[in-house]
Amino acid sequence: KQEVTQIPAALSVPEGENLVLNCSFTDSAIYNLQWFRQDPGKGLTSLLLIQSSQREQTSGRLNASLDKSSGRSTLYIAASQPGDSATYLCARGYGNKLVFGAGTILRVKS
Amino acid sequence: EAGVTQFPSHSVIEKGQTVTLRCDPISGHDNLYWYRRVMGKEIKFLLHFVKESKQDESGMPNNRFLAERTGGTYSTLKVQPAELEDSGVYFCASSQEHLGQGVVSGANVLTFGAGSRLTVL
To answer: Bridge-partner residues for A32, per DSSP?
Structure first.
């Protein structure tokens, strides 16, 4: 069973804070690890994709790491802004499909 | 570049009725995926098309669900007859390359549509 767990389920932080979202998966056999953002009523926006041969990816204030041996990925958001408020989803690429975690609901207060 | 388009955005039907959801992928994307999120659960894979062929339909819950992609362009997902537990959000996604291919170019990154919310009463 390819489970993906995300912690915390919800997070509320003041603007400007650096924060870390965690994702863990039970099977170390992995093709890639993808982080998405979902805004209410909208689709999923891909933030970062880490291939199995890579250890991290960076895009602007976002940095995602992948540790296959421990079955973990983290998404680091620097200097958080109210516009970062959304649900963040981690998904493990398994064969031709993504296995999603339940998500972390992030609220950044101004 | 136009994104992945899904229609309708929201559908409310009675139990036992039929609903057809449509997905228009990004032009040129051979790979098309359907996912869904039912209440309180994670987003789950339903099936994967490569052009007009079903590559993997292991996630389809039962034979009340029928997906087609005639001509390898847009896809439809029909639920007939709909049951209460089918309520949720149905997402479509497309990609240029197969998700499992370890290309670094990003051609295997899935682009998702906004989803079709289905409410079965």
So the answer is: A51, A93
The tally of CA atoms less than 13 A away on the side-chain side of residue A32 is: 24
What value does the CA radius of gyration of chain B take, rounded to a whole number of Å?
A: 14
Q: Considering only CB atoms, which chain B residues are within 8 Å of A102?
A: 41-42
Say if strands B10-13 and B19-24 run parallel, antiparallel, or are unpaired.
Answer: unpaired
| A49 at B interface, C-beta within 8 A | yes
Is pLDDT of B37 > 90? yes
Are the C-beta atoms of residues B55 and B43 closer than 8 Å to each other?
A: no
At A3 the pLDDT is 86
d(CA A71, CA B28): 34
Amino acid present at A58: T
pLDDT digits (tens, 9 = 90+) for A46-82: 899 888 888 999 999 999 999 988 899 999 999 999 9
Q: Kindly report the nearest CA distance between residue B73 and chain A, in angstroms.
A: 19
* Percent of chain B clearing pLDDT 70 (strictly above): 92
Rg (CA), chain A: 13
